[in-house]
């Protein structure tokens, strides 16, 4: 019996978005000096980061990467906690 509903992700699946220099070089947040804005406290808004993400060409892929790899902070215009979306 096979379980086709569960798909194991391998590193190779993530490499196109995690390790591609070409990919991340298009990040709108690249070089942003306001590091704390990307890891807001629960009581803080993240309008600063959200506004930058809104104009980022890899926004969808970035959020997907965060959820698939357990990231925390603002990714793709949303806030994640260990890969779980906690604020839109
Ligand atoms: S979507 Fe936001 S966090 Fe992701 S790369 Fe773009 S600017 Fe950075």
Brief account:
The protein is 35% helix and 12% strand. The protein is built from four helices and three strands, in the order H-H-H-H-E-E-E. It has a three-stranded antiparallel β-sheet with strand order 1-2-3.
Describe this structure in words.
By secondary structure, the protein is an alpha+beta fold. It is 35% helix and 12% strand. It has a domain of 53 residues. The protein has a three-stranded antiparallel β-sheet with strand order 1-2-3. The protein has four helices and three strands; from the N terminus they run ααααβββ. It is globular. This is WhiB family transcriptional regulator. It is found in: Cytoplasm. Its cofactor is [4Fe-4S] cluster.
Summarize the SSE layout with pairings.
Layout: H1 11-18, H2 21-24, H3 47-54, H4 59-69, E1 73-75, E2 78-81, E3 84-87
Antiparallel strand pairs: 1-2, 2-3
Tell me the major beta sheet: 3 strands, antiparallel
Number of helices: 4
Distance between the termini: 39 Å
Order of helices and strands: HHHHEEE
List the main descriptive attributes of the protein structure presented here.
3-stranded antiparallel beta sheet, alpha+beta, DNA-binding, DNA binding, disordered N terminus, binds iron/sulfur cluster, 3 strands, 88 residues, 4 iron, 4 sulfur cluster binding, WhiB family transcriptional regulator
């Amino acid at each position: 019996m096979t379980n086709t509903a569960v798909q194991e992700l391998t590193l190779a699946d993530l490499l196109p978005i995690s390790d591609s220099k070409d990919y991340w070089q298009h990040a709108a947040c690249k070089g942003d000096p306001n590091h704390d804005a990307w890891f807001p406290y629960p009581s803080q808004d993240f309008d600063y980061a959200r506004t930058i993400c809104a104009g980022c060409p890899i926004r969808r892929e970035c959020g997907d990467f965060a959820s698939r790899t357990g990231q925390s902070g603002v990714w793709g215009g949303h806030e994640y906690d260990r890969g779980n979306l906690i604020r839109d």
